[in-house]
Amino acid sequence: MSSIAIRRLAIIVVWCAVLIGWFSYRNANDLGTIDAAQGLVEQVDMLTWAPVVFVAAYLLRPLLFVPASLMTVAAGLLFGATFGTVLVIIAANGSAMVAYNVGRSLAGEQAEHDDERAGLVHRWGQRLRTRSFETVFVMRLLFLPYDLVNYTSGALRVHRPAFLTATVLGTLPGTLSFVLLGASLERLDDGLGGIDPWAVGASVAIFVISMVVAALLRRSSAAADAPNEPLPSPTETSARHG
């Protein structure tokens, strides 16, 4: 067995072990995703090193399939709007790189050179490789599933610096939106009753602006990608008007 195959097997075994432990804990305590996140908030809130523990939990999040949005809201609840935003910028981008590297390791080299597939997925794969920053940036602004973008980018071996830079910039609107929501809550399981209307308004405004910017960037990109029609030669022009 090659070293690459051994590395992939090790990643899968560790990942499966983490998932089994996580879901066993949730089932034993009859916890849903939100209940488990609320339990984490209560435990972390009592710790001196709460920011460090929270960042560590966020880094593990993609391996446990815990939604990034839920953890971002939890950051607002725990640390407030300002410090919560700073922590999420660090933790979310760290977790993005965790998922990216897992996807890259499991996919191997063949994903980079597999050009036989056709259709929308193939075109987006090509676009991710050739225009990495712009494509990842737009996908972040469109609020596409966070971990799906991470794993896919890693599997397609998107240029790492471009991926990270686009993620840092493209996730800022979402980070601000969800941290503001979290800062207005007393508990994650309070539901809509505990949300500050002003925080909701600010979050919606940021979301709408993000979507508009993404749409404008996509339109600009589509126009740039459209083939330009060649100008007619003098002979063709004379023939048309002769």
Describe the 3D structure:
By secondary structure, the chain is mostly helical. The chain has one domain. 78% of the residues lie in helices and 0% in strands. It has twelve helices and no strands. It has helices at 3-28, 33-45, 50-64, 68-107, 110-113, 120-130, 132-141, 146-155, 160-170, 172-183, 197-225, 234-241. Helix 4 (68-107) packs parallel to helix 8, helix 6 (120-130) packs across helix 7 (132-141) and helix 7 (132-141) packs parallel to helix 9 (160-170). The longest helix has 40 residues, at 68-107. It is flat, with a radius of gyration of 22 Å. The model is unreliable at 228-242 (pLDDT under 50).
Q: Which class best fits the helix and strand makeup?
A: mainly alpha
Rg value: 22 Å
Question: Could you list the spans in which at least 5 consecutive residues all have pLDDT below 50?
Answer: 228-242
Main beta sheet: none
Q: How helix-rich are the residues, as a percent range?
A: over 70%
Q: Number of helix segments?
A: 12
Nearest-integer average pLDDT: 80
Count up the domains: 1
| Secondary structure tally: strands | 0
User: Termini, distance in Å?
Assistant: 73 Å
Give me the strand/helix succession: HHHHHHHHHHHH
